[in-house]
Amino acid sequence: MLKIFETMEKKPFSPDLSGLQQSLGFAFNDSSILEQALIHSSFSNESQNPGISSNERLEFLGDAVLGLVIAEKLFNDYPDFPEGKMTKLRAALVRRETLARLAASIDLGKYLFLGKGEELSGGRDKSANLSCGMEAVIAAIFIDSGMDKTTDFIIRFFEEEMHSAVNESSTADYKSELQEIIQSSEQQPPTYHLVKETGPDHGKTFTVEVRLGKTVLGKGSGKSKKAAETEAARKALKKLPGIFTQ
Questions:
Q1: Contact at 8 Å (CB) between 209 and 218?
Q2: Which residue numbers are catalytic?
Q3: How many separate domains does the chain show?
């Protein structure tokens, strides 16, 4: 271990890294690598020990490893996706907000080594610190156990986020595709109209019509207005090109 706190007279906290490893679902062969991944620059700057450095180099490596694994996963699992769509999905999965959300889900913030000022300013909850820490942890796994285990970890850890990103992408595609087709031959875009709400407040079902002027192109239902609009656009696309020959 790096024995970071041996250089300080008082220990502001002493995180149990075995708890973090349990949350990660990954056991390190050398836990000092994980410890290094948790050192924020504010902590290393305040330390009197020149041997203590921040996690910024690990962050750089983790960003590259994460991007490669996500790109390969998208390439292999979605052979029909064009380059542009895969690029957008990868960007959504490796962006700060996604990484910070995943880091917060395992309480990564409470394990970070922060300087006093950063601690007082709420550094354990800052998106930048969480996302950078997550990238550094990924690099630590890579250094500790190699690419295969790192790939397994990333795919497992990012599984739900990937499904959500792909579903949201498909949602946007139905509506944008319908709009592009219609506006290629019409002057006006399609519009979406809520026509019915059913069920209790905690479990409503919404029904939406997509129209061109007064013509109903498609009708869809869903547990949210967005889902209902998506379904309406999907059904309208199935009816094309017959709509304009009626």
A1: yes
A2: 63, 135
A3: 2
